[in-house]
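Hi Y.,

Following your request, here is the sequence exactly as I used it, all 118 residues.
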Amino acid sequence: QVQLVESGGGLVQAGGSLRLSCAASGSIFSINAMGWYRQAPGKQRELVAAITSAGSTNYADSVKGRFTISRDNAKNTVYLQMNSLKPEDTAIYYCIAGGWVTKGFGSWGQGTQVTVSS
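Below is the corresponding structure, written out as C-alpha cells. Let me know if you'd prefer a different format.
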C-alpha cells in the first residue's frame, strides 16, 4: 500500500505560478512512475504529467511548455511546477503513483485545489 500526501495548491492570478508536491510512503518499492491528474468541475479526470523512475516524462498538450514535472527519488517525492497559469487550469489536482500511471493505475492522493483567477 502506498500513501500519498499532496501540498502546494491554492489561489493564484492568471500568469502566476504554483508548485505542487506529493510525498509517497509505504510500499514505495512498488512505485515505477508518478504523476499528476486533474479534474475540473463537470469534466473527466485527465492526465497532466507523468514521470518514471528513470526520468522519462509525459505531458498533456495543454500544459506543455508551461508545466514541469520532476522527481526526487531519494525523498520519494514528485513535484509539478506550474507557470503561466490560466483560468482553465483551475481544477483539483491529484497525485498518482504506481506501475502504469498514464492509464490511471496506481495509488491516489486526496487531491489539492488549484484555482486560477482571471
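The longest strand covers residues 91-100.

Thanks again,
Q.
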